[in-house]
Each structure stands twice: as C-alpha cells, then as structure tokens.
Amino acid sequence: MERIEQINYIKAPATLVYEALTTEEGLGHVWTNKLKVKPETGFINEFDFNEGYLTKMKIIELQENDKVVWECIASDEEWVGTGISFDLSEKNNVTTVVLRHYNWRELTDYYRWCSYNWAMFLYRLKGYCENEITSAYQENKT
Question: Where is each Activator of Hsp90 ATPase homologue 1/2-like C-terminal domain found (predicted)?
Fold first, then answer.
C-alpha cells in the first residue's frame, strides 16, 4: 500500500487550524465551496469538485485540536477505501500539520497528482489560518 505524506507549519493556534479542517466555513475556503460538513464522528462529509460525482468522507475520529481522520467511501475509484488524517501539534503559536493519505492500492499518475494537490491544500490552509487571501479548489484548478 502506498501513502502520501505532507507537512506544513502554520502561524496560528491549533484551535483555529482544527476549526478550519472541521467546518464548512474553513473547508469551503481551502478545499471546495460546494460541500456539506459537520464536525461529528460518523457523519459523512460531502465535497463537490464539479467532476460529476461527490467525494464522501466518513469522519472516523475527531480529537479536538489534535487529530481529524476521514475514510473515503465515495469518490474517484482510486480514493475509495483510502484514509486521510490530519495530525496537529502546537508550539509557540505555530501549528504543525501532518497530512497522511493512506491505503492507496498502487502508485499511479493520479496518486502523484493527488500528492501535489494535497500540498496545495496545505498551502491554502496556511493562508486561510494566517489571514491571507485564499480561494477554494474551483478557483485554483490547474
């Protein structure tokens, strides 16, 4: 099994980063503005990237200000069955975010493209949490 790992350092408290990863407002600014999100274990978040299907992520674990874990239950076939986690740790008002997208069946060109896009996701998350200009996926699609 393959896995993508990305890290970023955000000059903001973990409470703000956690909120950005678990709310419609936050994820609407950094991922897609067409979504249905609820910060509740077991809830199925829905994300629409204008690709003809919804990406659905079941919330597996929420540890306030520390960890968010999703399981992909619907999306591109390479994503279905994968997991995505965000581990947060804060020191001196800087939050380290470690993103892992794991249980990929194989290393493909789509996997490589997703690795790039997860890095861009963390870049937008940093901008949003540090009060810089950000925009959702639809406005940055390249």
Answer: 11-129
Q: Looking at the chain, how many residues does it have?
A: 142
DSSP letters, the chain, are -EEEEEEEEESS-HHHHHHHHHSHHHHHHHT-SSEE---STT-EEEEE-SSSSEEEEEEEEEETTTEEEEEEEESSTTTTT-EEEEEEEEETTEEEEEEEEEEESS--HHHHHHHHHHHHHHHHHHHHHTT-----HHHH--
Using 50, 70 and 90 to split pLDDT, how confident is the model at 132? Answer: confident
* C-alpha–C-alpha distance, residues 34 and 136, integer Å: 9
What distance in Å separates the CA atoms of residue 70 and residue 79, rounded to the nearest whole number?
12
Q: Identify the CATH assignment for 2-136 out of 3.30.930.10, 3.40.50.300, 3.40.50.2300, 3.30.530.20.
A: 3.30.530.20
Task: Calculate mean pLDDT across residues 64-88.
Answer: 98
